[in-house]
């Protein structure tokens, strides 16, 4: 691919040179003499050899061959020739100058596009683990997420146990002291981490070549060419993790290390004895016992304590004393945190003269770092909440207690010929459909669609 780009540019420059030197001049001898006087290096000598075409008209093949010899180093040679020829060609017409200038400026844009295309390739990839979060930090950052979430899991389970002990006798006190989100211990929770980097570079809109020619005392001609080129590369990394929602905090018996690079597997030093101590750990009241770097919300509260406070808020419409038909049951907690950092540089060069008004090149380059963290915490009816979005979740009335008037217990017919009787679940029962779990009466009408992780759209 690189050789193809080079050949395309090479052939285009050959054509430009042939077209330029094929234009005759009324003072070719003077033209050639001045160029020879200005040349001392091999590069200029090739330019002088090409200028000889003006004095010795010949066929197209010979002209092209001569130009081929003049641009063994394509870009540098052509521009060197152009500089020397401009000093010698005072007798050429303005229209010719503008035509040549326009084609040369277009060549600059084409050359830059080809060069940028060579840098934009899947063979050259930018590691997304740079910038906001580096590869060296990832193991410790993932541990921080794990420990904060597991601490929250255990707090909610303990608060639920205490709530169930007193809610029938003192429901207001139970809610005030032990409001919680009902985390299903038989379901997985999950979190994902997305790291993305976007690199952008190109010629800015300020790139312009304006060539001015004085036509008369009262009018000028200006030829404007504004080439543009840009490239954008995006690299995305998405990691997804499963966590058992019945996970327990493990004690780390390793002594505290002064080396920050030492990786400790446990979250805390010592096992929490009760709910009070557990919530103290969540609120970072015992910082010397934490074996991981805390994630802080609003510069004041650790993530585990913040999740607990949100669980209290989400439970307000379910655990407070209300009629069952008026409650809103929490099903799932989802949190997404995104950080985006963008930096770049812009450079511009401008030349202004009697002929150029101006000739300017503007280039820019930037890099955007994007980090995205998502956490999903599931209650017993999390699957029903997702199915309800597409109308695929149903509800069945709760089955009356076995042995009650509406759900009696029947015995098998006796050998004495007693009348046959129905068993629970027979034709005379309510025919309740099975639910999604031990704590739910809902059921799935249709399969819930599963969507794989997808990159976040570039902002």
What's the SSE blueprint?
Elements: H1 2-21, H2 28-37, H3 42-51, H4 60-70, H5 74-88, H6 94-119, H7 138-166, H8 171-178, E1 188-203, E2 208-214, E3 220-225, E4 229-244, H9 275-282, E5 296-297, E6 301-302, H10 303-314, E7 332-351, E8 356-378, H11 382-388, E9 393-395, E10 442-444
Could you explain the architecture of this structure?
With 459 residues, this protein is of the alpha+beta class. It contains 11 helices and 10 strands. Strand 5 (296-297) and strand 6 form a beta hairpin. Helix 1 crosses helix 4 (60-70) and helix 3 packs antiparallel against helix 4 (60-70). The longest helix is centred in the N-terminal third of the chain and has 29 residues, at 138-166. The chain is elongated, with a radius of gyration of 39 Å. 21% of the residues are buried. The model is unreliable at 12-32, 38-44, 50-96 and 419-438 (pLDDT under 50).
